[in-house]
Structures are given as C-alpha cells and as structure tokens.
Write a structure and sequence with these properties.
By secondary structure, the protein is mainly β. The chain has two helices and 28 strands.
C-alpha cells in the first residue's frame, strides 16, 4: 500500500490534469459524500484492538485523504471487506468467517456514531463467497433490512437489527448475483441471468410483507433498443459485467461494464524472440474498454440505450452500485460512470464523449456511498 501511495504522489506531480494530491482529514465531515476506500496503513497495537490510518480517495476534490489514528476494535482487525451499501460495510473475519456490519470506515460518520453489528453465521453459506449485499435503509432506521447473496448458494439471506438468525429464502429461478434495493418500489430486486429470452414481467420470489421484510422480486429486464452498431459490436466482443442501479429520483438503469483482456510481460523479464514465448512469462489483466447504459422505460417496455443521464453519476465497483446527483455533490463530473476494482484500477467514463479517464491502475478499492 505504501508503494501505491508513493506512485499516486508521483503521478500527481507529473500529470497535472488529474490533480491528484494528498490531504489529511483532521476532523470528520458532517456532509455525506462518496469516497473510495483504500487499504489501511500504519497499524499499531492498542488496548482491545489497534490504531490505523485509513486512506481514501475523494473524487470530488481529486485527492487522497488520510484519517490518522483510527481505532479498530479487535473483531475488525483481521477482516476482509465484502462490500458496502448505503455507506455501511460488511466485513468478514479471515479465519472464522464471522460477519460484521459497520460504519467505522466511512469518514462521514462521527466517532460518537460509530457502530459495529455482529451478524449471525450464514450457516452452510459460511464458506461461500459473498457476491452481493444490499441495505434497505441505515441500521439506525426502523425499516432496515440487510440482504446477502452468496455466489454458490441458492439462498438469499435477510437480517434485521436485533435478529439472532438469518431469514433464508430459496431462489427458485436462475437469478444472477446482481441485487439492488429500490427505494421507489420498496423491494429488493434480483437481476435475471442473461439469455436469449427476455423476462416478460417481474416474478415475486416470496411475499415477506407479513414478516416485516420487503418484497423480493426478479427484476423486469426489458429488451435493449436503439443501440448503435459500433456499440453493439463492443458489447458482443467484450467481457461484460452487468449492474442494476436506481437514481435518487427513481429511474432505473442497467449498465454494462465492458472489459478486454490485456497481456503483458512480467516485471524484470526480457521479451524472448519467436512466435511462441513461454506462457509463464506472460500475465493477464482486465482492461476497461467502455460502459454501455440502458435506461429502463416501464411505460414503453424497453431498455433504451442512452449517452445522457443528465447530472447523474453512477458508481460501479465491488458489489452494489449506486447513483448520486452531481448537483448535490459539486466536483463530481455529471453524466459520468465512476468505476473501481482491484483488477482494473479506478477512473471515470464520460458518457457524452465516450471517453475513458484512468486515474489509478492498481490497488484494492471499494466505493462507499454517501452515508444514510
């Protein structure tokens, strides 16, 4: 991580147009804002836990910020971050597979508001990789429900603050691992797997309203339309990841993150001559190619291709996507897709010009939505 921060500092002094710089967040902000969470550094032992420096990237100010001397309780010391939703992070212990829900890593949360919820075990899902998480509301609110889906499990697990066990629902249809809570419809949506046959309408998984849970529904994915030929070719020839996201006003979008494989020679190795070099000398990584956005129009029953989402910014990364208004968060670029994963790095994509802007190409990243 220290090498990564060193590279960022070097980039900021050379590439002025990115204007990357460092600042120290000496006090917690009361205003919510999107952040990109980087790896903690400078671990020091403390009573009942440890003290660390939390590193984040602020896409509004285009700078790395550091929160020094942040206390982590013992249970959060050896954890992996499995994803975030509504500004809260689900963390999993490395050795025992214990799950926690916390807002400690969000710089918009004051120290007095820090909370850590010890989540129940996921039973036979304990060894499965968590593929998606979604919160219906902040755990501080009465209608909060956490939904968790594991990639290899046929079950969707639901939890409310105070529950001693998960409420498990078997998914009877071939849904993907893409999940979203719709504030407009007050439902959890699962995106169906892609196939030649389009979904004819929403399929209610189970009516859980009697148990004070939101409805869980298969999302109605409409046929895509108005796709330019060049964009259609990009979709067909790319390695695609789909996201389902809802805007603050209730508009829904399906976004395709299109990547391509990039082969490169391992550091320190000399490229050999000949047509068939030894495969052990070649590494492969995904390189972001483009993003394709479809606005879901329920009245016309189509997914309309668009390069204009107004002042909206869509954030894609690990697990749940989210969307904010650039007007409410000055400094963000409107009509853009912000992206971040450990494999592709992070940057933003201007939809109007179809232009990709890489900021950092390596590291471990997780977007944190504005705290709710």
């Amino acid at each position: 991580m220290s090498q990564l921060l060193g590279r960022i500092a070097k980039i900021s002094s050379v590439v002025k147009k990115q204007r990357l710089c460092f600042s120290e967040l000496r006090s917690f902000s009361t205003a919510a804002t999107p952040y990109l969470l980087l790896k903690e550094t400078n671990y020091r032992a403390a009573s009942g836990g440890s003290v660390v420096d939390i590193n984040l990237y602020d896409p509004r100010k285009k700078e790395i910020v550091k929160i020094r001397d942040q206390y982590l309780s013992e249970e959060l010391q050896c954890t992996m971050k499995m994803g975030s939703s509504r500004g809260w992070i689900v963390a999993k212990t490395i050795y025992e597979s214990t799950l926690y829900l916390t807002n400690i890593f969000n710089p918009c949360a004051s120290v007095s508001s820090h909370k850590v919820f010890n989540l129940p075990p996921l039973e036979d899902d304990a060894k499965a990789r968590i593929s998606s998480i979604s919160l219906s509301a902040s755990p501080n609110q009465q209608d909060c429900v956490l939904a968790v889906k594991s990639s290899s499990s046929p079950f969707l697990s639901l939890w409310r603050p105070g529950d001693s066990a998960w409420t498990r629902i078997k998914v009877p249809f071939p849904a993907s691992n893409v999940m979203m809570y719709s504030g407009r419809d007050r439902k959890f949506y699962l995106l169906p797997r892609e196939s030649k046959e389009e979904c004819e309408g929403p399929i209610d998984l189970i009516n859980t309203s009697s148990d004070d849970f939101p409805q869980v529904t298969l999302y109605q994915r409409f046929p895509n339309s108005d796709i330019p030929v060049s964009r259609q070719e990009q979709l067909l020839s790319s390695i695609k990841t789909r996201y389902l996201v809802e805007s603050p006003s209730g508009d829904s979008f399906i976004v395709y993150w299109c990547n391509e494989r990039s082969f490169y020679w391992k550091k320190g190795e000399v490229k050999p001559t000949g047509k068939n070099p030894p495969p052990s000398r070649i590494s492969c990584r995904l390189k972001t190619r483009t993003f394709v956005v479809f606005r879901q129009d329920s009245e016309q029953g189509i997914g309309s291709y668009t390069e204009d989402i107004g002042d909206l910014c869509i954030f894609l990364g690990r697990r749940e996507a989210f969307c904010v208004s650039a007007t409410e968060y000055p400094g963000l670029r409107p009509n853009s897709v912000y992206y971040a994963t450990s494999g592709t790095g992070f940057g933003y994509y201007d939809l109007s010009s179809n232009t990709l802007h890489d900021v950092i190409r390596e590291g471990l990243f997780s977007w944190i939505a504005p705290l709710q």
